[in-house]
Amino acid sequence: MLGGHQETEIDTALTEYGLDEDLLREYDLHEWRAQVVAGAVRVQGARQDLYVKRSALGCSALGRIDQVLMRLHQCGVPVARLARTKYGDAFVSRPDGVFYATRAVAGHPPRLERVEVLMAATSLLAKWHAAALAAPGELLSVHRLDIPGQLMNDLARLEVYRQIALTKPGPDPEPGSVDEVFLQIRVGLAEEIRGVLVHLRNQDYPGVCRAALQSGSLCHGSFVRQNMVYQDNRLVILDHDHVYAGPQVLDVAAFLRRYMRFQDWDGDVLEGALQAYQDIQTVNGAERQMLPALLAYPEAVMRVLRWHYERIVTAPEDEVADALLREWEWHQAARQTLLSRMGYCGQASQDGEARETMVYSGDSPFLGGEAEEEIPGLTRFWRSLRRYTD
Q1: Which uninterrupted H or E stretch holds 229?
Q2: Residue 388, pLDDT above cutoff 50
Q3: Residue 383 — pLDDT band, cuts 50, 70, 90?
Q4: Domain end: 75, 103, 131, which one?
Q5: Quick check: is 236 in a domain?
Q6: Model-level pTM?
Q7: Phi and psi for 4 in degrees, rounded to 5?
Q8: Which range marks the domain in which residue 302 is found?
Q9: Within the chain, where are the H helices?
């Protein structure tokens, strides 16, 4: 029987996350304490310290990820594997969800602002890619692969945001406001996104996806600081909730887009990071041709705009405007580096003129039938992957 104060603390944590003691007993936990931490419940027992988490994946996908983690461990890649219940199971399936646990890993988040840490993380991602394999077609996530569809959604969002900005009271946007900054960069931003779309079309993005699925290539899907810990002079990867099958260049580009800005997109650092990756894992020719466009995607700029105009995050107007300007300046630095080091131009049209994008809604507020006609064969590219989804 637990003491009063401790029992209240545990009950509060479990109720907040929607767990109960029966689930923890599956892991043979006794005399434990619990607290909600970063989307999971940390349970400190007498013999082990676990993070228990509700999975958004089904039992089949989680079982495959467990196999991938065992393979990674056997290949010497430091990962937090799924802890076994007292019955030897990798997860627990109940009417209220599927749950799994991983052992707590002591350490601290990596300082990816430091060049040497950035290089070490890039090498670790390469080792993960080299070792992680799935049977062809397994762990397919059409949503994660449909980069063209996401880009078309972004173009449509820009038109929606423009209408919001122009229909607010007053003759002109206030100086220094998010609306003013957005309207200043909107045309250039749309042209940058459209340039990525055209580049993907020219490099046969659907074909690259098909080849990756046929080979069983896997992406980590969330290779970020929060999912790593620095322990005993090495990095350990903690979270594998977002693993999916697809071209591994998507993982590389997402990681570098996120952290190269801390290096002001220094060309030498970028080349060093790419070399650190390729020293371990080969980037095939088709993926290498796509990489500059994926790196040039102004994802962070779009994220700030979504936070503001879709009211995802509430923050003071001046802070959001500053963040938007900062992300746009970082994007311009990235574009210059990619132009000088990789020859990436990113022009969507031969004459360089920005074109307005009008995408009207059929089934979605951000995507309609015109999108597929404007960039043929991209937005609905997943039709070519149908054999993997049947």
Answers
A1: strand 228-231
A2: no
A3: low
A4: 103
A5: no
A6: 0.86
A7: -60, -55
A8: 115-229+242-388
A9: 4-17, 21-25, 59-74, 115-131, 142-145, 147-166, 178-202, 205-215, 249-259, 267-278, 285-296, 299-309, 317-342, 370-374
